[in-house]
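Fold this complex.
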Amino acid sequence: MSNPMTRRDFLKATMLAGAGLASASILNACAAPATPAPAPTTAPAAPTVPAVVKTPGDQFSWQRFKGEKIEALLIKNTQGDIMVKNLKEFEDLTGITVGVDQPAEQQQRQKLAVEFASGATSFDVVYYSFHVQKRLFGKNKWVSDIRDYLKDPTMTAPEFDWDDFSAAGKAWATEADGRIDALPNKIDYFIIYCNKEIFASKNVALPKTYDDVVNAAKTLHDPGKNVYGFAGRGLKNANTILWTTMLLGWDIDAIDSKLTLNTTSPDAVECAKMYQNLMKNYAPPGVGGFNWNECQSAFALGQVAMWWDGLGFATPLEDPKTSKVVGKVAYVTAPKGPKAQWAGMTGDGMGISNFSKKKGAAWYFSMWAASKGLLAKSFAQGAGAQARNSVYTNADALKSLVVPKEWVDGVVNSGKIGRPTLPIIVPVTEFRDIFGVALNNMISGADPATELKKAQDEFKPILDKSEA
Amino acid sequence: MKPKKSYSRKGAYTWFILPALIAIGAVIVFPWIFTLWMSLHDWRIGAESKFIGAENFTTLATNARFLSTIPRTFYFTILAVILPVILGVVAAQVFFQNFRWRGFLRGIYIAPMMATPVAIALVFTMMFQPQVGVLNYFLSLVGIPKSLWVYAADTVIPTLALVEVWQWTPLVMLIVLGALASLPTDPYESAVIDGASQWQMFRHITFPLILPYLMIAIIIRTIDALKSFDIIYVISQGGPGTASETINLYLYLQAFSFLQIGHASAVVVVFFAIILALALTLLYARERLRWNR
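Structure:
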């Protein structure tokens, strides 16, 4: 006679199995090594020197906040990966334990805006973008003013050296009223990546002016051979920064410090015409849907003569696993426009949440994250241009550089002519989106003047309301 | 006295449903009332909230960008519902037959349904790439000119719908397969005796009988397609320009990129009304088509 399992038998068996599994997990956890799992990183081998080289100082102690635990909200990028990879060094140095959350950039921006607005943050220290969030954070005083720490020898390590930060970095971190809201970490400049092989094939010189860019794109464009003269961001929102960067060549900001919109001025229209010409006539098909990653793919495949974008792409372009243009890339500093020569600039930094109850420990983490040693490591591993001047002369970093020296020259030259490319306003995302749609329409053939007028009419009430 | 005792018990029972009522109130009713309340405010994260009555709704009624998302959403929905329904019925007919490896092939066929939308979207993004994507390579093999897929305004919506079709046709197939298995056999026996062809049997017996089940599939697919977000967001982000910006994408942009919570809440209310109206219409149609009531 068969003896089928009853419901009670089944539940009993399930409970026993569950208890067995739970015990096994607990035993397993007890047996696991105390060290955390290695953080994911895409960065290659780093210089082996520690991030912080202590100098004698009677008043300052890295161990002051020993035993505290703080939460850091970073971004999933190379800079963030390097911090995570070297975190143990900070924990050993200070005795502070750090919990890290490292979401993708867009999700991180949304998370921190919502948490700040709620008046209680789950993080003590946050990595954020000055070019997107500076005004929003500054207006709401969401991050702490660090001037008192910088002045206090018991709180700032003697080797820290605030004067080592570039003028651009300091400017990014400083509010209009003099508050310093963050320690600058990374400064990014817009440069032009040129495929030297394509340029040499038609004996064209690397561009030095905007006219050179247009002429080179025209000469080198050969879609029959799968070679396109130019590539840039066409996808709405992402594309606006390319246009505002080009606009600096006319020596104007899209929106100036007095909140005057220059977006329909004759120069802005001329600039939009140049953007339209390059993107409509000399870019790969479908460029209207291209963000930086599609541009990077096309350039890395050797299909594009020029690509105008941020300078943080040298590492993948020089990696034989991901690129067909290794050793063929010229890193050209922003060319001279009709009226001026500026390199569009963006920047990131580390701020302390004003809602944090562990600001001292959070400040120590900020200081370490912007230390000479850690920024040198980030620089060497191609995470982009760093906010400290000393990294460019750091022998150890230069020795282990994973990108060509030519790229470093591009960074240094850009630093001399850097200028913020996006307006420092609260509704910067709306600005990028609304003008992004206009620019995208231009790629499809719409009239630049009409599109800019339409975009300005839509955006102005938003700007007026947000800055009122 | 007995009836009185029963009545008092009834009263005691009501306490047992109280926890469920509180839970429903907390997770369903309260968020709705709060959303409605927020939709009556001008509230941007980082700024003061101000009561503005129905202004968010009147603004929406004249907002060209929002209005353009409505027909676009319906266009996408129609493609993402009709094609899976047709293909799902055909697939169900095929898999209802007995043939070797049927179970294994059914398993393969429903695999897309189990995949994560974001992972699917990433794979399709690479496949749609005009220069290096595999789809254009396949087209070139058979001499068809390259397509711009999601990189052109006129092809982006059908292309995105294609991904939905690929993923959700198996769901329709499963529903119809269940319906076919439950159908009575006598009408078919009579039809065979009367000399009906396969097509006639499908047209006059199978189709009317599976129609109520098909309506269920249509309702589920319609609500799903209207709400579709992840695939569109990952593949096109609403672009090029605003060519694939559906109501959901617009809503996300307002809430999480522009931080305009009041405006976004008004969009939620309007969107909910649209979905509700559509779902009720489809449910009404289903009741009219039921033969097994």
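Strands of chain B lie at 41-42, 50-51.
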